[in-house]
Each structure stands twice: as structure tokens, then as C-alpha cells.
Amino acid sequence: MKQLLALRYILPLLCFFILFSSCKKELEEIEIEPVVAWEAHNKFLYNQRFIVNLHAAQAEDRLQVLGMYLFSKISHARKGAKVSNYVHPFKNLSHNKYPMNSSIFAGTEDDVLYFRTVSDPVTSGAGLRLDAKEIDPSFLGFELIMSNTLESMAISENNVVLVPYKYLNEESGRAELRYFLFKLGIDKANQSFAKIVLEETKILTPVQVGGYVRYIRSHHNNFYVATDWGFYKITEEGEIDFQMPDQVAYATFEHKGDLYTIARHGRRQTHALFRAVSGQTWSLDAHVGGTAEWLSYHAISDEILLASYNSQIFEVEPGIDKLQLRELDNTGLEGHSITSIAKVSDKVYIGTQSGLFSKAAEHLLTYKEEESK
Q1: In the structure, what pLDDT confidence band is assigned to residue 321 with cuts at 50, 70 and 90?
Q2: Which of 98, 288, 289, 366 has the lowest CB atom count within 10 Å?
């Protein structure tokens, strides 16, 4: 009788321990997927680590990399993403972020502008050299934005270039602001290489005198420029439209079919997100904090807008009454200063002052708050 009584109490305990051990076994078998880190590219080491700018030539599946000493192309159309390197003549790349499009990249040295073709970057006779003083004798010097994150001048996909500079106004005796507008062409008549030709030159003088250029960027067939006076649109034909007085823009980007700008009011020192609603007008979509000014914005596709600050990266969602930011995982990027971000094919690249990094696009939107859970 005593044995039956003992079994009566022992059996439930045995069942409990069996159930617990099976649960424990299941818990032990659950594996947390490791974080996919940003990986340094092994072809950009030593004195090639400083990446000035990136450009994604989507039609060719090609990433263009402008470094301190070399211009490089990474071709995704070839197996193994082949890297080709070429020496360029540009100076001051630690202070100036020069622009590129899919056909041309540009830079300066003293009073000279250099343009090189992406297809034949070091071929003699393929590039174009322009002496600014020969074009405008009153030229005093380029008014290039000195920044590692903002492009110093602008070039459109139509090979139109807008370059700000200072000139001597003989009437006032002061240095004032002007722009060179160059229309360039690619002459492929020579079968051995493509050559850049100057098709048209215009000198643009804004009505507002003085001030400094704070921002310049090309979108579609227009340039958007911010000076101390406010926000301008300049067409590829050279028409200047002063659109928002006192609004000093520090970012423009396209997202889901809309064009946005983030600007600081010069006198009130307030920050706001604006959206283009026509060729001449902008709507104020949201008031934003001053922190937004410190970020650099990168539209890597029409659906994905990123921002960066030092080594941090964020997904950005602009809209009515909001500018939402979610921090992304930056494992592998800690301590590296980001200069540019681009997406080619199924890969996202990040250029920094200390290397080129990449990650598969499918792992891009891994959020920091999810990492900590």
C-alpha cells in the first residue's frame, strides 16, 4: 500500500521533469542569427582608404569610386565585381567632394577645371581642361563648398555643370558671386575613345549680390542652390528662380516620386522640411529640430532614403508633420566617418574616410533597436 502511495506522488514529478527537460532542449536548439556586419573592401586599403564620393551607374551595374588619388570602377556586370583603378589629377580632396554622373567626373586645381570621361579616364585627349580666367577675366577663385559630405559643385545626368565662383565687380569693387554653366558633350566619332567637348558656356549673375554658397545639387533638369540669401532653382538653360528667401537649404533628395528639401530659416533659425508641389512653389510639410541639419541624406533608391552622421546610419521617412528616423545596424562601421552611400544591383556600398564597405541589400534594413532585444 505504501509503494502505491509513493508512486502516486512520484509519477507527477517525473512527468514535470521530463516536460521541463524537453522544453530546455527546445530552447537550447533555438539559434539567434548573427548580425551581418559591414565588410571592408580588400581593394581599397592603405592610401586608397579615403573615399571622397560614390556614384551608382545603374544602367551599367557599375559603382564609381572617387578616392584621394584614384578614380575606380567596380563592375557588377562581370563575375567577381572587377575593380579598375585610374590616377586622377584633382587636388584638395580632403576638403572638396567633387561630383560625378554616369559619363563624367570633375575636379579643380587652382583656377582650372578638369573633366574626365568615365569610359576613358586616363586616355590622352579624352578629357577637357578649362581655365576659368580665360572664360571670365574678372574671375577671382572658385566658390566651392568645403565639405566631406556635401558636393562642392553640381553635374547633371545631361552633362550640364554648374560651378560657383567669385568675381571682381568693377562697379562696387567687391568680390561677388557668379556661376559657370557648362554644357558638355561626349564625342564618340573617334573609335578608340570617347572625348568630352564643350558645347556651350554661360556666365550667370544672380540679382542678389554677395553671400556664400551653402548647398548645390542637381535633380532632373534643374540645379538647386542655397546661399546666405535663400534657396534657388537654376535650370540647365541658365534661368535663375529665387524660390524661398531666407531658407538656407542643406539637403535636397527625391523619395517616392517627391522632391524634398530641408532648410534653416536664416533669421529665425528654425528648421523645416519642404516638398516641391510645382516648379515654383514648395509646401512646408513639417517642422524639424536642428539635429536634422547635422545629417547627410542619401537616396539610394526611390523607396529607400538613408541618412548618416559620423559612423551612424538611419532609415528616413519624410511626410506630413514628420521626419521619422530609425537607426540601422552599423556593425563594422564603428569609428569610420561616412562620406557617401550608393546601391548597385543587390549590394549597398558605404564610402568612408578610412575604407569602402559593403553589405547585401537584403540585410540593410536591420534596425538597432531590434539588435538590442
Answers
A1: very high
A2: 289
Half-sphere exposure of 141 (CA within 13 A, CB side): 6
Tally of residues, the chain: 373
| Sole residue written with cell 538611419 | 314
The rounded distance, in Å, linking the Cα atoms of 89 and 107 is 8
Burial class of residue 344, CB neighbours in 10 A (0-12, 13-18, 19+): buried
Residues 6+ apart with CB under 8 A from 160: 181, 182, 183, 184, 218, 236
The string of pLDDT tens digits covering residues 73-132 is 999 866 777 899 999 988 889 899 999 999 999 999 899 999 999 999 999 999 999 999
- Element at 16 (helix H, strand E): helix 2-29
Q: Quick one: which of 327, 368, 331, 334 has its CA closest to 354?
A: 334
Distance CA 215, CA 116 (A): 23
Instruction: Give yes or no for a contact between 130 and 112, defined as CB atoms under 8 angstroms apart.
Output: yes
Kindly give, in sequence order, each residue whose CB lies less than 8 Å from that of residue 118, ignoring residues fewer than 6 positions away.
Answer: 57, 64, 73, 100, 102, 103, 104, 105
pLDDT number for residue 77: 67
pTM value surpassing 0.70 = yes
Distance CA 150, CA 146 (A): 8
**Comparing 29-38, 42-51, 71-80, 165-174, which segment has the lowest mean pLDDT?**
29-38
DSSP state of 346: T
Report how far residue 303's alpha carbon sits from residue 317's, in angstroms, rounded to the nearest whole number: 10
* Whether 174 contacts 150, CB under 8 Å: no
